[in-house]
Amino acid sequence: MQFITPITISSFTIGNMESSFSSSLGNNSSRILVIGGTGMMGQHLVKASLAAGHPTAVLVRSASSSKLELLETIKASGATVIGGDIYDHESLVAAFHQVDVVISAVGHHGPHDLEDGQLRIVAAIKEAGGSVKRFVPSEYGCDVEQAARSAAVLEPARSIVLAKVRVRQAIRAAGIPHTFVCSYWAHGFVLPRLGDPHADGLPVTRATVFGDDATRAIFVHEADMAAVTVRAVDDPRALDKTLYLRPPANTCSLAHLVRLWEDKTGRALDKYYMPDEELVNRIRDSPLPLNFQLAMVHATVVAGVCDQTVDAEAGGVEATELYPDVNYVTVHDYLDGLKESLTRNVNS
């Protein structure tokens, strides 16, 4: 059987998978490969996989100087770093022959880039035969199939949503065992700006508010997204399903989010409630990725597209019901942490 050739860049060696996984033959946990494991979501997935006891590998294209320290940290944590590229079909097939689960956390610069990269992974999984027992494509947002049915999702978000739908269709058509993960808005991206993609950080005197109290967003910490995803990959209840992460304590409007921050800081903010027409104009006039982020804000808290129900008939399952023991980081918890961080910075 072919194994991936080690790659050496500067003083860092990217190894193969034969030696690393042969040492874990007594481990009955699925062998997990994370693609995009050096990105924000990918790092959380690697940590969650290792914490759950899975033999874990990370596929990396190259060890650039900016990533050497991170890759050393990943290796030191117990993961195997292997060389490969989603644009190198043979390297993908060789890697997939060695693992049970493939989790994608690959980023993108637009709908074509997203679709092309994910379809290359799908093609390699298909060629690897039945080696891969579960595939989790790179989503971690709203249920794109529900969103695609609404005309309220504006460009460029609509093109990206439709690209993800086509990836789902390709996965099903190829007969690849899968779990689609809908984890909505990531704490670390949204909460430090109180839901305003324009903002550089937390508001000091003035906050822009999108939507009203009737439309809500769902917020999930990246570590919780990753932990639930890893639990699902060996769970037959999540096989060929769409898994929704909707912790009730983390569902609120952006207007409520701003009020929470006011309560925690004891400081009232001057609030500007952006009219829907102005938001639509800003989406039209802004560059990527800001226009995409604003379009998702519009879809979520103006159009209400992402305040979604679990479609059980279409294969939807609720993570809080499958894994009731998971203690999610709440919006309150995260905002408390932000406040403590600000206090430390002021006092230092």
Describe the overall structure.
This protein is α/β, with parallel strands linked by helices and 348 residues long. Helices cover 41% and strands 15% of the residues. It has helices at residues 18-22, 40-51, 68-76, 89-96, 111-127, 144-148, 157-173, 187-190, 222-232, 254-265, 276-285, 290-302, 319-322, 331-347, and strands at 7-9, 12-14, 32-35, 56-60, 80-83, 101-104, 134-136, 179-182, 185-186, 206-209, 217-220, 241-244, 251-252, 270-273, 316-318. A five-stranded parallel beta sheet has the order 5-4-3-6-7, with helices on both faces. β1 (7-9) and β2 (12-14) form a beta hairpin. α4 crosses α5 (111-127), α10 (254-265) crosses α14 and α11 runs antiparallel to α12 (290-302). The termini are far apart. Mean pLDDT is 91; it is low at 1-13 and 22-26. Keywords: NADP, Oxidoreductase. GO terms for molecular function: oxidoreductase activity. Residues 29-335 form the NmrA-like domain. This is Isoflavone reductase A622. InterPro entries: NAD(P)-bd_dom_sf (IPR036291), NmrA-like (IPR008030), NmrA-type/Isoflavone_red_sf (IPR050608), PCBER-like (IPR045312).
